[in-house]
Amino acid sequence: MHHITCDLCGKEVLPGEDHRFVVKIEVFAAHDPAEITDADLDEDHLEAVSQLLRDVEDNLVEEPDLAPAYKKLRYDLCPDCQKKFLRDPLGKEAAQKFDFSEN
Ligand SMILES: [Zn+2]
């Protein structure tokens, strides 16, 4: 039997659609369509990207500070965590708490 655990609290999630929620997040660099020109698509742009990739390779870090331009995330959540997630999808509460502890 395939066991699934909640990615937030680690609790085992019961099979069945009523007991398991999937969160899919896509993060990508936004481009204002009005600002896309041929210049964005020419070789200089590609060169810049490949230079960026070379820089990352040169650093040989497992988790580069540089965020990837595109990232797709998928999480399984139990019903409790699904409610928590929908209440605060971007973790703003947690971020504010963090700020307070810093000050
Ligand atoms: Zn959970």
Report on the architecture of this protein:
The protein is of the alpha+beta class and 103 residues long. It is built from four helices and four strands. The strands form two sheets. Strands 1-2 form a two-stranded antiparallel sheet. A hairpin with a 6-residue loop joins strand 1 and strand 2. The longest helix is centred in the middle third of the chain and has 17 residues, at 43-59. It starts with a strand and ends with a helix. The mean pLDDT is 78. Bound molecules: zinc ion (ZN). Residues 6, 8-9, 11, 77-78, 80-81 line the site of zinc ion.
Task: Set out the fold topology.
Blueprint: E1 4-5, E2 12-13, E3 21-28, H1 38-41, H2 43-59, E4 70-77, H3 79-87, H4 92-102
Antiparallel strand pairs: 1-2, 3-4
Cα-to-Cα separation, first versus last residue: 48 Å
Q: If you compute it from the alpha carbons, what radius of gyration comes out, rounded to the nearest whole angstrom?
A: 20 Å
- The general outline is elongated
Bound molecules: zinc ion
SS elements, strand count: 4
Count of DSSP-assigned helices? 4
Helix and strand element order: EEEHHEHH
Mean pLDDT: 78
Major β-sheet, in short?
2 strands, antiparallel
What percent of the residues sit in helical stretches (DSSP H or I)? 25-40%
Spatial ordering of strands, largest sheet: 1-2
Strand content: 15-25%
SSE class: alpha+beta
Are there runs of 5+ residues with pLDDT below 50, and where?
none
